[in-house]
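Folding problem:
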Amino acid sequence: MASLNQLAINQITNDPVETTALLGMYSKLGVPSISPWRSKLEEHKISTGVFNKLIDDAGIEINGVCFCGSYGSQGKAGRQAQIDDNKKTIDFAVEIGAPSIVTLAGGLLADSKDLDYSRKFNMDALAEILEYARQLGVTLGLEPLHPMYAPDWSVVVSIKEANDWCEQLGEGIGIIVDMYHTWWDVTLEEEIRRAGKHNRIVAVHVSDWLVPTKDILLDRGLMGDGVIDIPKIRQWLEDAGFRGRYEVEIFSNEFWSLDQEKYIELIKDKFQKFV
């Protein structure tokens, strides 16, 4: 099982907690790493300079940043605005010293049912973002999402598709393996091995798939509470050369309603037992 020093927590996991307070909790409770959201720092009116000092004072490392994507969410006319916003996220990553950014392929173009065209539209936009990220030395981590997210979030739904996109896009982009989104895939082991062969595994996200799932977005489970064989997938990842942290990313109305310090302790316990 994983040790606590391999843990990272995505900021959305403790969504109700203001950023400064959250870093204090993580420091107090021994959480070694966080993946912040640019939108949360803006919401909490925290500059990158202030955030960097808070991180240093807390002794917490940055695992990555959330997120780039959504290129077609405002239709063709909104493409440039989305690209400009993504560039701001890359700038943010540079300013806080983050090594990588979670990158979503984007869903169907707004008001369209043309999946093939949406794939091309999104890849072309991503190529433009990637060029900017290369210039600034930030790695993009393309994260495939479960097929149920294809209409609004990601036309890339498998590690195979992510590998294929990486091959077409070239240097500077890799893959984020989120077990919640990919556990079901019959080619998962093979495609993790393929990604590892080309040093493409940027980060790994963990949570669990509950049965029944009451909400496809806001009902993720804690590790060990669902049907994902997390240790088996972890072994595939480590056999493929992954040596990074395992990032807990849980969207959950139920868990957001809990006392967040007690919830963090529960995350730590589940992490050490089931990851």
